[in-house]
């Protein structure tokens, strides 16, 4: 049994660091709070640089958290119960948490070096949906995600870290304007496939596309924007009960990526690296076909 130091004094510098990172409004987000055992372990595996990891004096840290911290030489301490009450007040008190430095943002140039499918979320603003899509994208082998008009200013948003269970740092995620995203897909030639209730292809046909795709999903209320649809190679629909209004966008993403498992996961055709300080940002050109490799049945 490892004996860990316990923080019992409010004057400990760690207390101020934790208070700073839990503030709801910060002018500059340089550190992020990672809460609970599973997200902690995943973020450590993803290569985040942790200042320190903490447990609660009255609740032992899980072995997998301690093992991951030992492997990366991350300092670990416990926090006394009175200090925990001061730090989190009305918030849910995590039994394990850590403070990590926010990695620099991913760029389109870095995303262009991946070979798996890319999820493009156009106007999806509900953080819970975005987090679920991040988890599914990582699990089913997507190369990365582009968030357009999401209202997020950083992927280190505490709500997104919670909703994604920490996987938000495990694959490239680019926050972009609609104009920059459209310019990127025009430049790289990655076929953009838009999801629509009146799509000209059925979702099952995605499995026959033997190349990288960008899968475009919009919000449930407004769908995808016309500017994106104008550059889409195809539109795809998912059959549902006519009595149902729509599917949740995270469910749509899961269905689409399941149909693409042969490309994204089975063949292991991607090689993104987790975010780390000093990651190279040099661009490498790509030469990809402009159209998917399945029959063109567009009705537009």
Topology (SSEs and partners):
Elements: E1 6-7, H1 13-22, E2 31-35, H2 37-45, E3 50-56, H3 63-72, E4 76-79, H4 81-88, E5 96-101, H5 108-111, E6 118-122, H6 127-139, E7 144-148, H7 158-163, E8 173-176, H8 178-188, E9 192-195, E10 201-202, E11 214-218, H9 226-229, E12 234-237, H10 249-259, H11 261-266
Parallel strand pairs: 1-4, 3-4, 6-7, 6-11, 7-8, 9-11, 9-12, 10-12
Antiparallel strand pairs: 2-5, 3-5
Helix pairs in contact: 2-3, 6-10
**Rg over C-alpha atoms, rounded to the nearest angstrom:** 21 Å
Q: Which spans of ≥5 residues are poorly predicted at pLDDT below 50?
A: 270-300
CATH class of the largest domain: Alpha Beta
Round the mean pLDDT to the nearest integer and report it.
85
Series of secondary-structure elements, N-terminal to C-terminal:
EHEHEHEHEHEHEHEHEEEHEHH
Could you give the order of strands across the largest sheet?
8-7-6-11-9-12-10
Beta fraction: 15-25%
Number of E-state strands: 12
Here the CATH topology of the largest domain equals Alpha/beta knot
Q: Which percent range fits the helix content?
A: 25-40%
CATH architecture of the largest domain: 3-Layer(aba) Sandwich
What does this structure look like?
About 30% of the residues lie in helices and about 20% in strands. The chain has about 300 residues and is an alpha/beta fold. The protein folds into two domains: about 5-100, Ribosomal protein L30/S12 (60s Ribosomal Protein L30, Chain: A, 2-Layer Sandwich); about 110-265, SPOUT methyltransferase, trefoil knot domain (Alpha/beta knot, 3-Layer(aba) Sandwich), CATH 3.40.1280.10. A seven-stranded parallel β-sheet has the order 8-7-6-11-9-12-10. A five-stranded mixed β-sheet has the order 1-4-3-5-2, sandwiched between helices. Residues about 270-300 have low confidence and may be disordered.
